[in-house]
Specification:
The complex is a heterodimer. Chain A is mostly helical. In chain A, 72% of the residues lie in helices and 0% in strands. The radius of gyration of chain A is 18 Å and the shape is globular. The N and C termini of chain A lie far apart (47 Å). By secondary structure, chain B is α+β, with helices and mostly antiparallel strands. In chain B, strand 3 and strand 4 form a beta hairpin. Classes of the chains: A mainly alpha, B alpha+beta. At the A-B interface, helix 4, helix 5, helix 6, helix 7 and helix 9 of A face helix 1, helix 2 and helix 3 of B.
Chain lengths: 184, 266
Amino acid sequence: MNDDEIIALFFARSEKAITETQARYGRTCLAIAGKFLDDGRDAEECLNDTMLTLWNTIPPERPTSLGAYAYAIIRNKALTRFDYNTAEKRNNTISAPIDELEDFLPDESVSDGVEDRQITEAINSFLRSQNEKKRYIFIRRYFYADSLNELATDVGMTVDAIRNILFRMRKQLKDKLCKDGICI
Amino acid sequence: MKNRVFRAIGDIDASLIAEADKGEKHKKGIDLRVVSALAACAAVVVIASAAYTALPLMPSKDVSNGYRAELYDSAEGFVPGQKTCSQDGESGTAESSDSAQMTTENTGETSVVAVEPTSHTTETGKNCADTSDATSAVATLATTPAIFFDKPYAKVMIYDTYIIFATEATNEILPYDAEKCFSAMMQSEYEVFYVQLYNGDMMFFDQLMTMLQREYDSGHEIMTIGLDFSVYDTGNTGDIVLAYTTGYPDDTTLCQTVCTVSSTAE
């Protein structure tokens, strides 16, 4: 069943929409949550919450890509749970991708009054200015939280090469954000 | 919230997320496989023809120094790293004047790197030059590199027993002449180090050559397969990865790393 058909089920308020979404995107959703959460039960819980959010938001939303929409939701939910777990020192999940950005663009460097939406728009613009391969590497690392080894295998480059590309992209992103008045 | 930027990445355009979705990518697998198969066939043809046509042009290990010098003389725009070494046989220390001090200045999008010779004393335990004729001959060969191929998108440098083949990393597919040359190199007896330089960094080729030459002559194992090149110790004595990144937080520190690694590793 394709995205349009599943979304039609959501609009028809058919519970089959949830089953079909899980079948099509559940595995990737769980994998994304698993990147941030050690405990599989936490990831499962995020998946269930994501399905509920999908149910509650479609309609009126009609995402162009149901997968991307679901991934973004579960990523945010997993991050929220990650924050909760780390605050309580309950979790030792590797947070390398977050730390890489934290080192480069700490929250303190973001100008006062800047809205998250502005940051996202700047990132969208930055990513569109990159070639497809770099964009893929960046998004796999910082959206899907892939490890450097996974990425290296995936794109057929060395870990060092991936690390260098990401380093340069972080630097370029910082320059872009500063140029747009987002960071100081 | 752990990091606002990381969080914001979660809200990027769905089209970008979908583009990087492996599941979506996988759907194009059949097409990609067809393309890959065609590319593989083409590569076989290129390698075969390159081996046939270009290999005889390759200088072999026993090529005379004169021929190497002729190649070198014909090269344009290359300034080899000048290496002068003095020996202290008893203490095993060597003084090298070719160490590079790098400074950078950012000019918008590009980093400009200047390499200035500085005096640098190392304790490598190896002598860069020797009074014996044999060692001197090796040292001479190692300091007279020859450019074999010199194009804006790819350069090839031949040393005594090894070859540096450098290309722009943006060249997903090498131009035919460079591909042909690379294939020939791989078929030769030389040890080939393939280096991919980042966009526009071919201008730093000369500096790379100087660094590689110094490390190689110091007896370090060189592994230069990677995108940029900077220097770091792999943790194994004698293993050094040369890599160079103009975007390091502090390129002066990078230079110091070059010097430290080359002076402490066995």
